[in-house]
Write a structure and sequence with these properties.
The chain has 8 helices and 10 strands. The protein is α+β, with helices and mostly antiparallel strands. The protein folds into 2 domains: 124 residues, Jelly Rolls (Sandwich); 103 residues, Orthogonal Bundle (Arc Repressor Mutant, subunit A), CATH 1.10.10. The chain has a 4-stranded antiparallel sheet with strand order 1-7-2-5. A 3-stranded antiparallel sheet has the order 4-3-6. Helix 3 packs across helix 4, helix 5 crosses helix 8 and helix 6 crosses helix 7. Keywords: DNA-binding, Transcription, Transcription regulation. InterPro entries: cNMP-bd_dom (IPR000595), cNMP-bd_dom_sf (IPR018490), HTH_CRP (IPR012318), RmlC-like_jellyroll (IPR014710), WH-like_DNA-bd_sf (IPR036388), WH_DNA-bd_sf (IPR036390).
Length: 244
Amino acid sequence: MTVEAHSPLIRKLSAFVALSEAELGVLDRLHRRRRTFVAGRYMVHQGQSGQVAYILSSGWVCSYKIQADGTRQIVDFQIPGDFLGLRSVLLRTSDHSFEPIVNIEAAEVLTSNLLDAFAQTPRLATAILWAASRDEAMVVEHLVGIGRRDAEARMAHLLLELGSRLALVGMGGKKGYDCPLTQYHLADALGLSAVHVNRILRQLRESGLVTFRDGHVAFHDYGRLTDFADFDLEYLDQTGPLLA
């Protein structure tokens, strides 16, 4: 099976580089080891050694750390087109866990295959480095959100960020997107209680900004919501190819 021309990963990397036929061929080989994972079962657990990376083809995943008291802090959500565990292929153990939110399909990428791909196609390696750097920029924004934004702005910013990321891979836009996250996922990502999340979502809905209901996020006034959240797309760096 070949990588489809409009697969999520190709859409994502094409925001940085115009991919050549040779680079598409390398991506195809990286997708050969396809696996499925059931919702709620570990893909990778914190402290696990001997890592491989994954390319998420369909479904949503959360990455998180478990604290000594058993509480969970979600670091990020992964959507189709994202790499999972890219950093851990160079580290001895994984410093956080990955768990599917819904049933997913992912391509398993061995460290040796990834390094071979980098050696064969330096431009593709640069594009993957761009994707990793973009992920790091999002984590920085999440840290700022938890530390400095009020709860309502924090929620609005996350929903806008997810919408922009999904738009890049053809799965969302300024009207909204399908979203499998529960209020517990949002609570663990934003440092809030589930009760507080429920109240914030109701306030945002009653303000005519956004509704999150029945697995769908609907933006009612995208411009006003971005102003409210002080959301600037610049950190996502997805305005078009930088390398020809």
